[in-house]
Amino acid sequence: MLATRGNHFETFNQLPSASSAIFFIAGMYLRTIKSFWFFYLLSIVIDLSTSYVRGQLGSCLTVAYPALALSYAAMFAGGFYGRANWLNKSTLLNILQISTALVTASAIAFFISNGSFYLLSGYFIDPSLNEYILRVQKYFFRSVSNPIFYVASVIMIDWVFNRFILPYATKNNVIHSKT
Q1: Where exactly are the transmembrane stretches of this chain (predicted)?
Q2: Which of 28, 49, 27 is nearest to 38 (CA)?
Q3: What is d(CA 82, CA 24) in angstroms, rounded to the nearest whole number?
Q4: Which tens digit of pLDDT belongs to each residue from 28-45?
Q5: Is 65 helix (H, G, I), strand (E, B) or coil?
Q6: How open is the CA angle 158-159-165, to the nearest 5 degrees?
Q7: DSSP codes joined into one string, 66-120
């Protein structure tokens, strides 16, 4: 998150932000409200720290900023409910489930963060539905597609682990159960 959050670091400004993907992945694997709040507070610390280093508040730090908690909560919930179950479902069903959860959560997160910024930030005088639709057309696809690379990478690692490593380790008693 630190390396990809906005344009905080010049050397990493070509990477898409991993923030929403991190919340989705945390929902899938960490699955606790504490992990959600940890990453949310981390995002705030990153934003405030970089603003301090720059000597000015970033354009994202407006009265709409707290709505990011809801946006990230949508991603966390999407990951929580879209979690794969490689042992009891086919690979195709798992991929469909994760993909549906990721796209749905990303769309909800986009409309929460983008809509709140548009309505509350103070950057848009006299907001209108037509102008907002134009903004959605401009930013929606990129925003929804940003987390795909990160989530797909993690899912691939998870699938390989569950498909090949875990069965091998279990079969050969590499993993010992607690009794």
Answers
A1: 37-57, 63-81, 93-119, 139-161
A2: 27
A3: 9
A4: 999 999 999 999 999 999
A5: coil
A6: 85
A7: THHHHHHHHHHHHHHHT---TTTS-HHHHHHHHHHHHHHHHHHHHHHHHHHHHHH
Higher pLDDT, 55 or 49: 49
pTM of this prediction? 0.86
Which sign, positive or negative, has the C-alpha torsion 127, 132, 134, 138? Answer: positive
* pLDDT given at position 52: 80
Q: Kindly report the CA angle at 13 between 35 and 145, in degrees rounded to 5?
A: 60
Torsional class of 55: left (φ above 0), alpha (ψ -120 to 50), beta (otherwise): left
Both structure tokens of 84: 């794969």
How far is it, in rounded angstroms, from Cα 144 to Cα 105? 9
